[in-house]
Specification:
disordered N terminus; about 35% helix; six-stranded parallel sheet; three-stranded antiparallel sheet; alpha/beta; about 400 residues
Amino acid sequence: MTPAPPAPDAAGPLAGIVVADFSRILAGPLATQTLADLGAEVIKIERPGAGDDTRTWGPPWAADGTATYFQSVNRNKRSLALDLKNPDDCELARRLVRRADVVIDNFIPGTLDRAGLSDDEIHALNPRAVIGRISGFGSAGGRERPGYDFVVQALGGLMHITGARDGEAMKVGVALVDILSAKDLTIGVLAALRRRETTGTGTLVEVNLLSSLQGALANQIQAVIGAGAEPTRIGNTHPSICPYETLRCGEGELAVAIGNDAQFSRFCGELGVAELANDERFATNPARVANRDALRPLLEEALQSASALDWEKRLTALNLAVGHVATIAEGITLAQDLGIDPVVALHRDGVDSNGVRHPVRYTPEFDTPALGPPALDADGEQLRAQLEADSPTTTCPTPDSPTPPATAS
């Protein structure tokens, strides 16, 4: 008899951790949403009257009028509207920092200094605080340079290797660098919290978009560093494996990832062109890479007899890695069919919404919070009352200039 699965823990592993979230747009909020999914209490600081810019980044809009962009990275948080140019609100921000375990921002480095929240001042208020920061280009020579995902994709080389071989450089279809930076920051914050258990003191964790992109370029950047070989755009093909690309079928396109010669032989056999596996031009992977331009039309001719969906079923049955080029909605359906359950139901203040489920699974499980994203200043009254009850900090300076824009999109 199969034993029953263990009951979920009462709370996530970060229960009791308080995060003061001064970030906005995508990278910082995605990192803090991940911490919230793991049980941390995340208090999102927003501009009065306007809030996070992404509140207005629509269409599309959810049924309750919320921009889906904002929804994507702000669940399981509380919202507190503070004007950091106002001394009273600045004082509340400092009191929150004194309570917090983690302080996150993605402004141009030095922005929070004007509110009396420089790194040194944060650690004077709270020596145990972990400070997490995402910038565009670091805190040295690129300190003042605004950083947005699209621009970093261009400057870091990702666009140079993305797109058709004879076409223009292309960005990735999502703000990938922001997302990579968010995951890097989350890793850094978790490591700093673990380090605090032994040292008793907080750490400054810095991530910049350019470094996160370069860290994710993997074999492509190593080709430059290790061999001086600059990769170029090759569309959906792979520089070292063939066929590893999209191929046109009778209807639709099929993504094909053939990793070795035995797989290529099975692939050709099912397509009815078994002789290609014995052709000296294609018999080995290096030969196929050298002769990819000759191989592709022969494979596409064979694939014309059926649709990409049909070929996917037939080839998957042979344990080959293939898949039709699907929409995002079709990808969600696939995950549901595979029992992955990619969608989580969220509820807040009488409003129901859905979000993409936190991608990491744990055994035994723990209870995952399921609060929808907050309205602007939704928790302001309660949080202000709590913070006003705290003892004052040192005098809060009044900023003498407007707050610069966020440095990470």
